[in-house]
Amino acid sequence: MYPLLLLPLLLLSSPIEASVNDFCVADLSSSDTPSGYPCINPSNVTVSDFVYTGLAKPGTINPLIKAAVNPAFTAQFPGVNGLGISVLRLDLQASGVIPLHTHPGATELLVVTQGCITAGFISSSANTVYYTTLGKGDVMVFPQGLLHFQINAGGTNAVGFATFNSANPGLQITDFALFANSFPSALLEKSTFLDDAEVQKLKGVLGGTG
User: Fold this and answer.
1) Which of 46, 78, 106, 209 has its Cα between 20 and 30 A from that of 35?
2) What is the pLDDT of residues 79-117, one digit of tens each?
3) d(CA 54, CA 25)
4) Does residue 61 contact residue 98 with C-beta atoms inside 8 Å?
């Protein structure tokens, strides 16, 4: 029997340790799965798989919300596949807004780097609203799956960077989920307590039918 003092050294030199995968760079030619993309052959991995330069400038501004979201998720940054982390850049023009939305697969941590942003979330237990105005250098966390929002609180452009504890946090924007599809108006009216005129107005703005 080996002395107990030698056991840590034996574990470190065992074949089990050698089989650990350091990373799994995504094979984007395959389909995503709940556990991530399959890995490309490690022999084809290069340092560029672990570097992403796309956050140096804003994404494309959506004129409806006056904001741009520029993600570095697995689809843009294959090196984060399976690592439980990702990031995006958020740009808000004056009066810009990121409407109420959720990330089903991740908690979000937002840091403001320019301007000021009013941000908040709604708890699921008591529907309590937690919101505040963030300035440069301020950080706020949005727990996984909870409805939350960001609004430019100043007269100039605001910028923030959000990190997630998932390579693919998922996204569902409440307004688009309700009014940008073929959800029957009669059902929407009953389930949201809105009248037909308001439902049709919102569908007209967001492109819904029915």
Assistant:
1) 46
2) 999 999 999 999 999 999 999 999 999 999 999 999 999
3) 18
4) no
What would the two tokens of residue 126 be? 């008591």
Q: Would you state the structure tokens that stand for residue 29, as one six-digit string?
A: 């030619």
Instruction: Tell how far CA 26 is from the center of its chain.
Output: 18
Is 3 strand, coil or helix? coil
Which residues are known binding-site members?
101, 103, 108, 148
* Annotated binding-site members for oxalate: 103, 108
Annotated binding site for Mn(2+): 101, 103, 108, 148
Task: Say how many Å lie between the first and final Cα of the chain, rounded.
Answer: 75
Q: Tell me: the pLDDT tens digits for 2-17? A: 555 555 554 555 444 4
Look up residue 204 and give its two tokens: 């007209």
